Amino acid sequence: MAGLKLTDVAKSYGDVSVLKDINLDIDAGELIVFVGPSGCGKSTLLRMIAGLERITGGELQIDGQVVNDVPPAQRGIAMVFQSYALYPHMTVYDNMAFALKLAKMSKQEIDDAVRKAADILQLTPYLDRLPKALSGGQRQRVAIGRCIVRDPKVFLFDEPLSNLDAALRVATRLEIAQLKESMPDRTMIYVTHDQVEAMTLASRIVVLANKGISQVGTPLELYEKPRNEFVAQFIGSPAMNLFPGEITATGERTTIRLADDHGDIVSAYPSTAADMGKTVNVGVRPEDMHVSEDGTGYTGTVDVQENLGEVTLLFFVPDAPGKDPVIAKLPGIHRGLKGQTLHMTASPEKVHVFMDGTSLLYR
Amino acid sequence: MHPALQGLVTIIIGVGGCVGYFVLSNYLLDRFLLPARAFSAEQTAARRKLGTIFLFAIPSVLIAIGFLMTDALFSVQGFLWLVLAGALILGLWRLNDFVFGSGATTAGRNISRANMIRPWLFLLPAMVALGLYLTYPVFETFRLSFTQRIPGGYEFVGVDNYTQMMSEPKFWEAMRNNMLWLFVVPAMSTAMGLIVAQLTDRISWGNIAKMLIFMPMAISFVGASVIWKLMYDARPAEQDQIGVLNAIWVSFGGEPQQWLTLPIWNSFFLMVVLIWIQTGFAMVILSAALRGIPEETVEAAIVDGAGPFTIFFKIKVPQIMPTIVVVWTTITLTVLKVFDIVFAMTNGQWGTQVLANYMYDKLFRANDWGVGSAAAMVIMLLVTPILVMNVRNARREMK
């Protein structure tokens, strides 16, 4: 039963600030995923929790105890590294037993713990092998086994799947999910840059960007109600379309006139009279777009059509160079839309409005 | 001519010769022997004919030289000469086939054939030089170790040289000292090199420290011996001590000692010199190996609760074990051959004799090439297994 509490945690190397104002409450038994673009500091944050990087500001509590200056081994954490970091000169058994030997446990206890973990991870036949004689997936499991035997309060995973091939990645992802289910009271923190891993594994996702936390929430919260444009575009694939526009009607619902005479669109997001005439960005996910019957919404000519069978992707390439194309994802098969001029709209509940990058919902 | 000028000319001729050989031989290979273009069947046949003329021309010149050099071809030397020429003909005949072939040839075939020959072109000078200066002397020494010098020549004496050597106490002293060196020097050098490599890795002036420790490597063994001889120097008690060791000793109230004449201890004083030199070597290699250890394994050990000593001995050292073995054996080889230090500092007196110095004594002082060669063979016998092990290890390292 161990929760984590991060209060104003910051990290800087000399004058270079990498992370600042990180405030986060993690409850016991959660599987938290840190996700963000490369270089956003998500691994650094994890390593600070592990105790491998010094925390240069703020306070980190594990289980209600400030651990800023507690060495890693006494924090009750265990970590799976990106490259597995198995000890190449030790057998699988010794790899898993190393921490327990250091903890001066009895031979019998060590043996029981290792064999139990090996059993769970189906590593029993490989206990006498050296890591170099194992496949990537098996090495991964040894790395996880090394954590399990210590029975830590918090598991830390640093991009554990990035060295595996695509098929193995899906399988190992499922294994980690099952592992979590078998240990409901253990907290896990998982770092990845892969949003699919984040969406499928997380009880809550922490999106990191610009040295701080962009948004914290369940996967569907992030998908349905992104706090800002960054989260909106980071979660979901293809990324959310953003259209510049101007608010023309306010109230319970907001009407926005899209720039470049692309028509009007209505959002279910409420706005105040003061917002009248403000410039905003309208965000619509490709899968939420559909052809409007009454000629309202975004108007454009289909430049490229991709037929994938289950869905049809339509690309509207903007005239201005350097701008991302508008993408619509229509369910099923649609023939011969290329070259046609279409009016695309979305139901008001699915239309996000961002003012200065922040969603109207979170003002 | 001024000696410096002579040296310069020698260097120019030597380096120029090397460059000339490589440029010219490759030029011949790519332009005349196997140019990168296609030949019709007739052209190939013509080239083959030309090749065959060369093929017989070169050995016949050799045979002619043989005639001129020896009195007659029908002596032992003449026979050897003929065998050599015969082997050359056979080799060139195969090469002729390989190079020209029969029928039309393509540019691609010529290029790939040329690239198969090229490595041998580069290896040839090294192989000839090694054969002449290394392989041949080994066999000649082996032969000489069974001979004895008599006025006007030599005679075959079987294993007499070996039995004579075995009965000499000086030989056994040398053997014992060599074993002592063998245990102490590689162990101390490697251990100190490892410790220094680890300690200098994290400190700001680590690189300066490394440079200082590496510097003795640049000094010749004799130079180092001269330096250390001064360190061990002794002056009469009433004078100031210029030797560091005696200066310290006297300041603590001792009588000045002739350190290099104290039995048993003096061997260790000599070993210190070699340790001083070899630590730098061990440090450089081991430092690189330590840097090559994946940082994440160290971090994993930290998370597992390992302290600095456990990390060093249980995580780092095992991972660089192959490198440690290579360093250890390399230093062992140096130790087995150690000569200069003993020669320059004690010349094997006062119980410090080692095998190489014993060999030198026999060969150049006593003019007894038989026993000297026998001693050389003993050294080689001791070195060979370690050499084989070292080469194997180095190969495994490279994989």
Automatic annotation (TrEMBL), chain A:
Keywords: ATP-binding, Cell inner membrane, Cell membrane, Membrane, Nucleotide-binding, Transport. GO terms for cellular component: ATP-binding cassette (ABC) transporter complex, substrate-binding subunit-containing; maltose transport complex. CDD domains: ABC_MalK_N. Pfam families: ABC_tran, OB_MalK. Residues 4-235 form the ABC transporter domain. GO terms for molecular function: ABC-type maltose transporter activity; ATP binding; ATP hydrolysis activity. Belongs to the ABC transporter superfamily. This is Maltose ABC transporter ATP-binding protein /trehalose ABC transporter ATP-binding protein /sucrose ABC transporter ATP-binding protein. It comes from Aliiruegeria haliotis.
From TrEMBL, chain B:
It comes from the Bacteria. The chain crosses the membrane at residues 6-29, 50-70, 76-95, 116-136, 179-199, 211-231, 268-290, 324-345, 369-391. It is a multi-pass membrane protein. The keyword Transport applies. Keywords: Cell membrane, Membrane, Transmembrane, Transmembrane helix, Transport. It is found in: Cell membrane. Residues 175-390 form the ABC transmembrane type-1 domain. GO terms for biological process: transmembrane transport. One of its GO terms (cellular component) is plasma membrane. Gene3D superfamilies: MetI-like. The keyword Cell membrane applies. It holds the Pfam family BPD_transp_1. Belongs to the binding-protein-dependent transport system permease family. This is Maltose ABC transporter membrane protein /trehalose ABC transporter membrane protein /sucrose ABC transporter membrane protein.
